[in-house]
Amino acid sequence: MALTAETESRLYRSLRAAAGAAAHLVALGFPTAVAMLARPGSSLFSWHPLLMTLAFSFLMTEALLIFSPETSLLRSFSRKVKVRVHWALQLLALLCALLGLGIITYNKHLNGKAHFVTWHGLMGLLTVLYAGGQCVGGVLLLYPKLMKNWTLAKLKLYHATSGLVGYLLGCASLMLGMCSLWFTTSVTSISWYLAMLCPLITSLVIMNQVSNAYLYRKRSQH
């Protein structure tokens, strides 16, 4: 028997809510697992994986999920509050990423190793620089009068699109990090594949959220 349009819509919203809940769990669970694996404080390097997973798995994911109509933890709050919290989380993510980058750079210096010679290192550097630029771009949304020739709607669209690119770069950097010798030595078999699924799950949820917001904006213009 064919489903009615209302039933299909309800089912779709339920699936999105379930996917969002899974993204929340992964965003918190993955950095927790990495923290247990790295044992922060056991070495200088141990802070690098923790800070990077906090930045790109937890803080950045939660910063974007704030705007989800189904799974936002601040659904009952005004958009202004959501924007401020989004900004705070993104700034914390950038600070964690910068600190993580500084630690791994200094650790390589102490051990006489070359800098940014692996795909993970290059992707990580690009991601952190991109995140910095994205935060600067976010200032334009807080103070749109700085861009007199741009409408607020266009600024929001470009910020959301470039933010998605930055988030995907962060997920790719995390996945490349899981291909490193340190991670593959510590995590093997099915656990490694499950770990690789974590950034993949959150990236799919965020991509769906951004694409739906874009389609909603397009429909509202017609």
| Strand percentage | under 5%
Question: Got a strand count?
Answer: 0
Assigned CATH class: Mainly Alpha
What is the chain-wise order of helices and strands?
HHHHHHH
The major sheet is characterized as: none
**Unreliably modeled segments:** none
Intertermini distance: 33 Å
InterPro entries: CYB561D1/2 (IPR045150), Cyt_b561/ferric_Rdtase_TM (IPR006593)
Cofactor: heme b
EC number: 7.2.1.3
Protein name: ascorbate ferrireductase (transmembrane)
Report on the structure:
With about 220 residues, this protein is an all-alpha fold. It has a single domain (about 40-220), classed as Four Helix Bundle (Hemerythrin (Met), subunit A) (Up-down Bundle). Helix content is about 80%, strand content about 0%. It is built from seven helices and no strands. It has helices at about 5-40, 45-65, 80-110, 120-140, 150-175, 180-185, 190-220. Helix 1 (about 5-40) runs antiparallel to helix 2 and helix 2 packs antiparallel against helix 5 (about 150-175). The model has no long low-confidence stretch (mean pLDDT about 90).
What's the arrangement of secondary structure elements?
Elements: H1 5-38, H2 47-65, H3 79-110, H4 119-142, H5 152-177, H6 181-186, H7 189-220
Helix pairs in contact: 1-2, 1-7, 2-3, 2-5, 2-7, 3-4, 4-5, 5-7
Question: What keyword list fits this structure?
Answer:
about 220 residues; mainly alpha; Four Helix Bundle (Hemerythrin (Met), subunit A); 7 helices; metal ion binding; metal-binding
Task: Quickly describe the structure.
This protein has 222 residues and is mainly α. The chain has 7 helices and no strands.
